Amino acid sequence: MSQSQEGVSRRHFLTATSLGGLALAAGGVTLPFGFSRIAAAVGTSVNPPEDKVVWGACSVNCGSRCALRLHVRDDTVWRVETDNTGLDTYGDHQVRACLRGRSIRRRINHPDRLNYPMKRVGKRGEGKFARVSWDEALDTITNSLKKTIARYGNEAVYINYTSGVVGGNITRSSPYASLVARLMNCYGGFLSHYGTYSTAQIAAAMPYTYGSNEGNSTSDIVNSKLVVMFGNNPAETRMSGGGITYHLEQARERSRARMIVIDPRYTDTAAGREDEWIPIRPGTDAALVSALAWVMIGEDLVDQPFLDRYCVGYDEKTLPAGAPANGHYKAYILGEGEDGVAKTPAWAARITGIPQERIVKLAREIAGARPAYICQGWGPQRQANGELTSRAIAMLPILTGNVGIHGGNSGARESTYTITIERMPVLENPVKTQISCFSWTDAIARGPQMTALADGVRGKEKLDVPIKFIWNYAGNTLINQHSDINRTHEILQDDTRCETIVVIENFMTSSARYADILLPDLMTVEQEDIIPNDYAGNMGYLIFTQPATSAKFERRPIYWIMSEVAKRLGPDVYQRFTEGRTQAQWLQYLYAKMRARDPQLPDYEALKQQGIYKRQDPAGHYVAYQDFRDDPDAHPLKTPSGKIEIYSAALARIAQTWRLREDETISPLPVYASTFEGWDSPARRDYPLQLFGFHYKARTHSTYGNIDVLQAACRQEVWINPIDARARGIENGDRVRVFNARGEVRLEAKVTPRIMPGVSAMGQGAWHHADMHGDRVDHGGCVNVLTTQRPSPLAKGNPQHTNLVQIAKI
Length: 810
Ligand SMILES: Nc1nc2c(c(=O)[nH]1)N[C@H]1C(S)=C(S)[C@@H](COP(=O)(O)OP(=O)(O)OC[C@H]3O[C@@H](n4cnc5c(=O)[nH]c(N)nc54)[C@H](O)[C@@H]3O)O[C@H]1N2
Ligand SMILES: Nc1nc2c(c(=O)[nH]1)N[C@H]1C(S)=C(S)[C@@H](COP(=O)(O)OP(=O)(O)OC[C@H]3O[C@@H](n4cnc5c(=O)[nH]c(N)nc54)[C@H](O)[C@@H]3O)O[C@H]1N2
Ligand code: SF4
Ligand SMILES: [Mo]
Prior knowledge:
This protein is of the alpha/beta class. 31% of the residues lie in helices and 16% in strands.
């Protein structure tokens, strides 16, 4: 708690009488600092004095993480400010919260917050609950868990992907690292998953090229001449003042690097800061890259020495033994490979919607600007052919030798500097079987039919049992965030399939409605925890949060909840789970370990006082694969050959052995392939518009989605180009139906040239709002009514950006 620090500040504004006096008191630093003090001073003059100001953090999964200063009066948070420490110069800048974090008081004090444990009384999904005691709730969970494991084994217990508190350490919700996982690992284990909804395709694919999935730090753009962004929108997806959007701006201000944004939408990242926006048809980036390669090869613009020394499979010279003749990349591009098609700009123009001349110019521009920071967000890979796309985009820095150097990049998304963190240990899972994080609905519906070769089951040839028990702590992927909500409803509402669902939440979300037992959690800002930065360029930090208020109603912290279940599972389980420590003792124990590894860290009490501790990357900027670039023999990559594998023999083997459908492609080369529900799919006859759900500033997924001021500031709309709107008689602001064979969503249309013709989009994460026992039409604008549960071929990941719909005026 930062009471003493705040006490000093408060004395300043109680004695200061003018703006000048205030600015002086604040050390004459930045305007926002002075302003917030004035606001506080005005507040204190008309209201009773506040009791304290407490350091908190916004710990949602937005890829940033922000410090909050919670002003508390009468045991209630009544005002929220953000980081005000340091001189606020770039490199020691303030980690300022975005409007979501600044509105957290409205989440903390929301009238709809869950207050008591509840059990389901109606049909599953109907949303009928009755209040029960904690004892009854915990006993019920324990008995169901025991029964499930006795009858089906530990593999029938699943911990769903959830990211609501991904920022926490003790409170962390990430399924790999949560206290739920720790508990299950103390009790025989659980069916786990690989991959995430965020990065399934790129995280599966990139390692075939590079051995890992890393990018340069965004701050390294200070050394770049050109920035090329494929479907990357940090102005909306990394919004913190300590986040990537700030680094991008500051670094470009210094390097004056040109910026080209390649995205079906004119994004907030472009928004006048770009030098050029190139709209592209979703799912076709690999075609664009192929044509760029065609121009570069034809005009002798490729970095041949780099390709010869560092890469495998660019041309005949480095094609691995066992690969087919002309199986190399150059042959593929020039039309001498298996398909016999030259990847000319004319060929790509038809696929991507980008004019040929622009493709030629872009190729010359990229090859001529060194170093170039070529990167991708995760939008392009959240497509049904996303594995191919992510590796294809990486070809541009590879062809131009931009990998492993300052100001360059690998083609992946940025990496970040992180301060030493010692995670709450989750122990080892005795169960080795895994499914992809996206295929859990299938594992309920047809678990024992799922195999390694057809469905990506790992650790076993096939699943033996379906999922019978689900833990869902701090997540909304049971309904809202998982694809094809209407199908999910069918699967979940039948409680003879998955027999028990436990949801631990703050709100009655669409997922919470499917709980059998629903438990009210404390929020991170109501607990003690130490929270590291997420994506933050080259300035890492730690935030030490303290409980802003006491625990209200019967809300309980996750550590207590899991300890109580452990206790009911037996004294040995309880002992293994807690190791005899309280939550506070765990934190001290973990922090002591951190300091042992990193003696520069402030001591525990000092960190508690100062709330946030920042440090710049001592190495300057992170450069992905720099060691390898400097000395490839001494520092080989983690690929089988130790080199950049443009041709991957491992993928060639998978392509031969896995069971794939007609319209699915796994290839040793980063080729372009069309896919199900793409721009050229026959289904376009009925559903002519492509649709995806971008990550939206109104919310972090669904979190903050119930905050009125944010809803008003950033409306939930479907973007549609004026050409497509006119053809349908739709005007800006009209209510429309967006539908396909899976369902229907109703919301307002945003008619705008900011999206290319033939494509539509809406912010993902809006709260699903439908009568599931009636017409099932969603009035909340939730894109997942329209998305498919069919996984992508290699990662078995979520192709949630690959959809076809029709839009009609209501
Ligand atoms: N405000 C806010 N920030 C967030 C989140 C949030 O919900 N709200 N979520 C966080 C999380 S968990 C994640 S995983 C990240 C997600 O980060 P991303 O996955 O990068 O975000 P998206 O908006 O899905 O996609 C980025 C851009 O890709 C574009 N795009 C879509 N398909 C294609 C394509 O085929 N080709 C090209 N070139 N572009 C395409 C979209 O228009 C969009 O502008 O964001 C994080 N940040
Ligand atoms: N169509 C489509 N769907 C998508 C995506 C997309 O791009 N398109 N993106 C996908 C991606 S990348 C991701 S990461 C997922 C994210 O999906 P989720 O991980 O489900 O993320 P949220 O929707 O934010 O849900 C987090 C939940 O945690 C709760 N919560 C927040 N704080 C706390 C707390 O302190 N305690 C407890 N117990 N609960 C808390 C919130 O109320 C909220 O219900 O969505 C995926 N779904
Ligand atoms: S939503 Fe993200 S950027 Fe906004 S305050 Fe929270 S952590 Fe920071
Ligand atoms: Mo994500």
